[in-house]
Structures are given as C-alpha cells and as structure tokens.
Amino acid sequence: MTSARDEILRRVRSALDGVSPAVAVPPAPRAPDRGDLVALFVERVEDYRAEVTRCTPAELDGLVAEVLNGAQAVVPPGLGLDVAGSVVDHGLTSIELDGIDAVVTRAAVGIAETGTIVLDHQPDQGRRVISLVPDLHVCIVDSSQVVADVPDAIALLDPARPLTWISGPSATSDIELDRVEGVHGPRTLHVVVVA
Q1: pLDDT band at 91 (very low <50, low <70, confident <90, very high)
Q2: Which residue ranges make up each domain of the chain?
Q3: What does the alpha-carbon distance between residue 71 and residue 39 come to, in Å, rounded to a whole number?
Q4: Is 80 exceeded by the pLDDT of residue 88?
Q5: Each residue of 10-63: pLDDT tens digit?
C-alpha cells in the first residue's frame, strides 16, 4: 500500500525519466548605462520634492548664482567655485550660520536607485553643520559620481569618515500626518547635476 506522497513522487519520476537535468545559467549582469543612471537619479531626487537642474561645467557658476538669486550662502573652503557674496566657513558658529540663507556644497556620491546624495565632509563639502542649518542647500553632483545603488555607494565611501545621507529636503509629519519641511535641516534642496 503506497501513500499519496509516494504515488505523486512516482509519477514525477516517471515523467522525468530520460530527461537530462538543465543547468540554469544566470544572465550576466548588465553594466548600467551612465545616461540611464543619471536619468534615474534625477527622477528619484525629484520624487522627494527637491529641485534638479542639469548643466555643463562651463554653466555651473552662472547656474549656482541663479539658484541663489542673491541669497547669502556659506561655502566650504574647498568648494572650488566662485560664489558671489558667499561666506567661506572657517568655523562659523551655529548662531552665525542661522543668519545665512543658503549653503553650496559638492557631494561625495549620488545614488540612482534611491535618489540619495551622500556627503563625506571632504573640503569641498565642509562640516556637517553647514549642510543642516541654512534653509536652502544647493548640492553639486557630477554625473560621474552617480552610482546604481547603495552597495555601489558603500564601496566608494570611507566608513571612518562622517557621512550625511540626504534624500530630499528635510521633512517630517506631525501627529495628524501633515508634512512639515525644514524641521531637521534645509527646507529646500536644489541639486545641480553637472555633465
């Protein structure tokens, strides 16, 4: 007397008799196209209610001035960009920073899948506090800095450095789920993608 399980297995074995097992070969991973990555990055950053502008290296100075629209900005000492009317951060206090409208930094990496910008606070990005206190953060991301996903970003970052991960303007929701922006950082994030 056979069980139902034994009968099912007998039928499966009979059906497979003479069939050679196929070896599944996983497809080779496709290296993402740089253009696709940058387009996905822009789309995801915009999903977070951040503004995104693309420009060439020659247009960068003028575009940053246009985005700032006369607002006074703090810049890190290694920014490598001439921002008219800016204050270079050489240890500004939080009270001094509170009186400044904007900050302009570069990024360490941009993550296409999540629309996240990572700062590792090198000289072109400055101290963490300057990216958190002013109400407008203008962040410059070179298209060559955009990677596909978080593991790709982690591979490029030094874990011993302080890291700030930015996914859109600072926002939270109150108990009634009303979105409030600018509570824990800049109310407005403007990302400039340079290609």
Answers
A1: very high
A2: 32-194
A3: 29
A4: yes
A5: 888 888 888 777 666 666 555 556 668 999 999 999 998 899 999 999 999 999
In this structure, which amino acid lies at residue 8? I
Residue of 82, 80, 63 whose CA lies nearest to 138: 63
Please return the burial class of 120, using the count of CB atoms within 10 Å of its CB with bins 0-12, 13-18 and 19+: middle
C-alpha dihedral sign at 48, 154, 81, 170? positive
Would you say 181 and 51 are in contact if contact means Cβ atoms under 8 Å apart? no
For 25, the token pair is 């070969």
CATH T-level assignment (fold) for domain 32-194: Rossmann fold (3.40.50)
Are 124 and 131 contacting, i.e. CB atoms less than 8 angstroms apart? Answer: no
Euclidean distance between CA atoms 32 and 143, whole angstroms: 13
Q: Give CA–CA dist 74/137, Å, rounded.
A: 10
Average pLDDT over residues 138-167: 95
> Residue 73: in which H helix or E strand, if any?
strand 73-75
The model carries a pTM of 0.77
**Bridge partner residues of 173 (DSSP):** 179
Residues 93-127 have pLDDT tens digits of 989 999 999 999 999 999 999 999 999 999 999 99
**Number of neighbours of residue 164 by Cβ within 10 angstroms:** 17
Q: Tokens 């030094």 label which residue? A: 158
Query: Which sign, positive or negative, has the C-alpha torsion 152, 157, 159, 163?
Result: negative
